[in-house]
Amino acid sequence: MLKINVFISILAFLFSSIADAGNSSIYDSPKIDRNGIQVYTFQTKNSDIATFKAVTRINASIDSILAIMFDNEACEEWVHTCNKSILLESINFNERYHYQILDVPFPFRNRDFIFHSIMTQDPKTKIVTITMSARPDYCHKNKLKLCQSYKATEMIRVSKSLGQYTLQAVAGGTKITWIQHTDPEGNLPAWLVNQFLVDVPYFTFKKLSEKVKEKKYRSAKLVYDKNGVAIALHATQHVHVTADKDFMNTYQNYSYQETEIFLDYQ
């Protein structure tokens, strides 16, 4: 019970940071404003580590951008400092757990995370929101095979991290807003973390805008059920995505040409 209360308290704190980040009045001028990318930072309540908010527009559809975000094997190619990303479990297409390692410069130790991500889409505006929260204890009582490898770590496992991506279709592409607060813990000084904080969203968005030009992502299309809920993502080449099991039971009724779906559920 104590662990549950602590976890709820951490989430409440982190979600309050996300809520504050939506308040434009707290921002001064952006710390970075170039190549169509704006990055802002603000001080987070009860934490020495700042929160960032990054905004950009990319000439690609929401579907294409999601195809990259769901492709764990591509993490190193677009997420700044990503060393590895592995899908642990898919609850369904919109909810999953994944493991991630971020490189940290010597002499500090790398950080690793277990993230719980949930995707929602407004049925009217079609705006997509992906929220990711750290779940450091997820594998401790989980019998999944992959979890056995990631229960323990020689790195520093991050316990306080919450991020939110918002994807909105606009003329000529997609507007992406990314808000993130992560406490890297350990002996990394807060002033050093804050100094280089803006590099993460800037270089991530810069590489994302290039990565999305690849054909296998440009052709990606979301598939919806009769209620307008996304249940799969189709691509004409190898893209590792999650898919809803109920959808796969009726997949033979669909007739998409040159389409492959790669299932990552356990």
Characterization of this structure:
With about 270 residues, the chain is of the alpha+beta class. It contains 8 helices and 12 strands. Strands 1, 2, 3, 4, 5, 6, 7, 8, 9 and 10 form a 10-stranded mixed sheet that branches. The chain has a two-stranded antiparallel sheet with strand order 11-12. Strand 11 and strand 12 form a beta hairpin.
Give a quick summary of the entry.
This protein has 266 residues and is α+β, with helices and mostly antiparallel strands.
- The helix-and-strand class reads alpha+beta
Helical region count?
Answer: 8
**What is the string of helix and strand elements?**
HEEEHHEEEEHEEEHHHEEH
Give the biggest sheet: 10 strands, mixed
Anisotropy-based shape: globular
What's the β-strand tally? 12
Segments where pLDDT lies below 50 for 5+ residues?
1-15, 242-266
Keywords:
two-stranded antiparallel ribbon; alpha+beta; 8 helices; disordered N terminus; ten-stranded mixed beta sheet; disordered C terminus; single chain
SSE inventory with pairings:
Elements: H1 2-21, E1 32-34, E2 37-42, E3 51-58, H2 62-69, H3 75-78, E4 82-92, E5 95-102, E6 111-121, E7 128-134, H4 145-150, E8 156-157, E9 160-170, E10 173-183, H5 190-196, H6 199-211, H7 215-218, E11 221-224, E12 230-234, H8 245-249
Parallel strand pairs: 6-8
Antiparallel strand pairs: 1-2, 2-3, 3-10, 4-5, 5-6, 6-7, 7-9, 9-10, 11-12
